[in-house]
Amino acid sequence: MTQDLTVDIAEGRLNIRVAAIIQQDDKILVSQWLNGTISLVGGRVALGETTQAAISREVAEETGLIVETASLCAMIENFFKYDDTFYHEFLYVYDVTTNVLEFDQSAPDFESQDILWLPISESASVQPEILSDVVRDKRDQILHLVNQEANLVS
Length: 154
Hints:
Elements: E1 6-9, E2 12-24, E3 27-32, E4 38-44, H1 51-63, E5 67-82, E6 85-98, E7 114-119, H2 131-136, E8 143-148
Parallel strand pairs: 2-6, 5-8
Antiparallel strand pairs: 1-2, 2-3, 2-4, 3-4, 3-7, 5-6
InterPro entries: NUDIX_hydrolase-like_dom_sf, NUDIX_hydrolase_CS, NUDIX_hydrolase_dom
Protein name: ADP-ribose pyrophosphatase YjhB, NUDIX family
Domain Nudix hydrolase: 11-139
């Protein structure tokens, strides 16, 4: 298995991740983790993998869904702290369509989280919160956003 693009450095951690906006009517597909955090379906990019290949792999691993189309809609520079670790993350957000909208509960990562449909009106609960803007306002151009939840203190 190829290594994820996560690098620990003295001051924190560098992450390269992908997230999928999968929409059905007025709802988006999300992952809810054991700690209550809600995120878009997605995960880390592997070494040597394109972000587009990563989004197809992550969607399949978490939901069993097969990606038909994936269009980059945003790139977010995300700065946050989690468990006292400072993260500098590059998050590539794709607008995704899939072959069907029924989950495969035998998908490799399906059991590690709850996969559910969240009303777009509640998208502010998705982390990072700046994703709510992308979910609500997908444009015909790629957005470049910065989410500064934490600063690196020297």
